[in-house]
Amino acid sequence: MLVLRRKPGEAVMIGETIEVQVLGVEGDTVKLGFSAPQNIQIMRKELMESILQENLKAGKNQIDQSQLLHLLNRFTK
Amino acid sequence: MDDMNQTASSKDAIRTVNSRAYGSFQVTESQIYHFPRGLIGLHEFKDFALIQVDDGPFHILHALNDELSFILLPAHLGAENYGFQIDRPTVELLAIRQPEDVNTFLIVNAIDDELFVNLKAPVLAAPGSRRGCQFVIDDPAYPIRHPLIRKEGS
Question: Quick one: fold of B2-147?
Answer without folding.
Answer: BH3618-like (2.30.290)
